[in-house]
UniProtKB/TrEMBL annotation:
Reaction(s) catalysed by this chain's protein: 4 hydroquinone + O2 = 4 benzosemiquinone + 2 H2O
GO annotation, cellular component aspect: apoplast
EC nos: 1.10.3.2
Protein name as it appears in the record: Laccase
Record's signal peptide: 1-29
Cofactor binding notes: Binds 4 Cu cations per monomer.
Organism phylogeny: Eukaryota, Viridiplantae, Streptophyta, Embryophyta, Tracheophyta
InterPro entries the UniProt entry points to: Cu-oxidase-like_N (IPR011707), Cu-oxidase_2nd (IPR001117), Cu-oxidase_C (IPR011706), Cu-oxidase_fam (IPR045087), Cu_oxidase_CS (IPR033138), Cu_oxidase_Cu_BS (IPR002355), Cupredoxin (IPR008972), CuRO_1_LCC (IPR034288)
Length: 595
């Protein structure tokens, strides 16, 4: 955790009571209140002092630690010169869509100097989620863990001696608002300077190469530790290992998994993976390493990003002979197959009291095939006839079924849906399939050329999809190789989805449906669609409201790889979206929340 600068303390950010109150309600569940003061802070890394944006003087920010069934109340005070929202990533928000915190989707940003209270319940979820800013690139430093503990205190695995968030992120010297502006202008040449583990760069970087710059996990031999591994990065999926140790994966995205033993965790942006680590090595110091992976050329390349921390056993001393501390053997940064195989080995674990929630819908009411890739729109906006293939006549955009989402910065979609005034704001015709089939994973489509250019034309629009309440929806996400071959961590707000299967190459319904796991699939809020492959998910639309769907790579969001799902009200008040709560602040005329 970084220390407050003098300037930050002037804001009164010495919030001694971050967790302000826990008032018992109904004998067991509680109301848990916290205050988030969002402000600027100066931090020195890599020989330079950088202005960053933080909550309560901390990077990462404070952990929200609650028990299943609690009501969460967070008071956000915005002391930034920019608007922002806070999104509670992975919280189901049952009938509380107004508190989801998706900027310009469920609310307009909190205006500079303004305040907002988020209030919602956490029921039916146990494990690790997280929270983050949901406007521009601010989530790179405005983020933290969100832990939901079981009401009875019991886990379906040995109770650990301690649990520790391991938050993997990135260190940017470029101002995050400027980064966002450059990407909106189509400039994607900027990169982070380092990876971070719990805000620390590690001992590999110039001018930061000391143990003091490393996150240190203190352990005792013979005890187990629950590591809550969260990827908050803007750009990269990460491999995570600890030298001389193995993990047992036990949960992901606030849901239990069948225990799976491995020596490496793969975590994509938006994901949270729970692993048990048993401290069974000889007492010593051991390196932990977070390494970003990326597709090989000809995909656009970023520098190799690595951070490393330490596992320090009680009673261990630094080697007096200056022998190197054990280092884990990491995959090549361009080898993305370990990510694919890691996820292929994960299955869900439903406790007896969760059987109903973990039952996969047997029928399907609506099927969607959504292709994920890049495309282009003509400059000027009035013509569809221009030279393609990374031509100066076009702007490269990210697409879903050749539609690039047009993000508004003037209003909130949920308000227009609730008020019945969608005209001129959005349409409800997001396509259920791509406009034309092609060989989606043809490597010849990555470099610009005639074959690729014919597939580039894209619509820039705010096209949403409406579903009736309690419909069974199946989506096959298909990664493509149009101008790139990235994986795609797809995050759906307000829902967990059953991950039925994933595969490499093009999805073939005649062959691949036979691979669907209906018995014990994972429940996830963020689904990593493999590079050059596909992922099939299914869910029941039991949560009315307006729910954002997007890739969690920040450059893909800004480029338009997003849409929103409207879920209609059910037949009763208990199955309908309620009116906005008293603390909700509607949009003003300037695209920010009203004072």
């Amino acid at each position: 955790m970084e220390k407050l600068s003098t300037a930050a303390s002037l804001f009164g950010v010495v919030v001694a009571a971050t967790a302000l109150a826990m008032a018992v309600v109904g004998g067991e569940a509680a109301v848990v209140e916290q205050t988030f003061m969002v402000h600027e802070m100066n931090v020195t890394h890599l020989c330079n002092t950088t202005k960053i944006y933080v909550v309560n003087g901390r990077f990462p920010g404070p952990t929200v630690d609650v028990t299943e069934g609690d009501t969460v109340v967070v008071h956000v005070i915005n002391r930034l010169p920019h608007g922002l929202t806070i999104h509670w990533h992975g919280v189901r928000q049952m009938r509380s869509c107004w508190a989801d915190g998706a900027g310009y989707v469920t609310e307009c940003p909190i205006h500079p100097g303004g305040e907002k209270t988020y209030r919602f319940n956490v029921t039916g979820q146990v494990g690790t989620l997280w929270w983050h800013a949901h406007v521009t690139c601010l989530r790179a430093t405005i983020n933290g863990a969100f832990i939901i503990r079981p009401r009875d205190g019991k886990y379906p695995f040995p109770t650990p001696a301690k649990d520790v968030p391991i938050i993997i992120g990135e260190w940017w010297e470029l101002d995050l608002i400027e980064l966002d502006r450059r990407m909106l202008d189509g400039n994607f040449d900027d990169n982070p300077l380092s990876a971070t583990i719990n805000g620390k760069l590690g001992d590999l970087s110039n001018c930061s190469g000391t143990v003091e710059e490393s996150f240190v996990l203190d352990v005792k031999r013979g005890e187990s530790y629950l590591l809550r591994v969260i990827n908050t990065a803007l750009f990269s999926e990460y491999y995570f290992k600890v030298a001389g140790h193995t993990f047992t994966v036990v949960g992901a995205d606030g849901n239990y998994l069948t225990p799976y033993k491995t020596d490496m965790v793969t975590v994509a942006p938006g994901e949270a993976i729970d692993v048990l680590m048993f401290a069974d090595a000889p007492p010593a110091y051991y390196h932990m390493v977070a390494l970003a992976n990326q597709p090989p050329p000809p995909d656009l390349q970023i520098p190799q990003l690595t951070s490393r921390g330490l596992v320090r056993y009680a009673g261990a001393a630094m080697d007096s002979n200056n022998l190197p501390m054990p280092m884990p053997v990491m995959p090549d940064q361009h080898n993305t197959m370990p990510s694919y195989y890691f996820r292929r080995n994960l299955t869900g674990l439903a406790l007896p009291e969760q059987q109903q929630r973990h039952r996969v819908p047997a029928h399907v009411d609506e099927r969607l095939l959504i292709t994920l890739g890049l495309g282009s729109i003509c400059r000027g906006g009035n013509t569809t006839t221009c030279k393609r293939g990374r031509s100066p006549e076009t702007v490269v955009v990210a697409t879903m079924n050749n539609v690039s989402f047009h993000h508004t910065n003037a209003t909130a979609l949920l308000e227009h849906y609730y008020d019945g005034t969608p005209e001129g704001v959005y349409t409800e015709d997001f396509p259920v399939r791509p406009p034309r089939p092609f060989n989606y994973t043809d490597r010849e489509l990555i470099p610009a050329g005639p074959l690729e250019a014919a597939l580039e034309p894209t619509a820039k629009a705010m096209r949403l999809r409406r579903f009736r309440y309690n419909a069974s929806v199946e989506i096959v996400f298909q990664s493509t190789t149009l101008l790139q071959s990235d994986s795609n961590p797809m995050h759906l707000h307000g829902y967990d989805v059953f991950v039925l299967a994933q595969g490499l190459g093009n999805f073939d319904p005649k062959r691949d449906v036979e691979k669907f796991n209906y018995h014990n699939p994972q429940l996830r809020n963020t689904v990593q669609v493999p590079r050059g492959g596909w992922a099939a998910v299914r869910f029941l639309t039991d949560n009315p409201g307006m729910w954002y769907l997007h890739c969690h790579f920040e450059f893909h969001i800004i480029m338009g790889m997003a849409t929103a799902f409207i879920v209609e009200d059910g037949p009763t008040p208990e199955t309908s979206l309620p009116p906005p709560p008293p603390e909700f602040k509607r949009c003003g005329t300037n695209g920010l929340s009203q004072p």
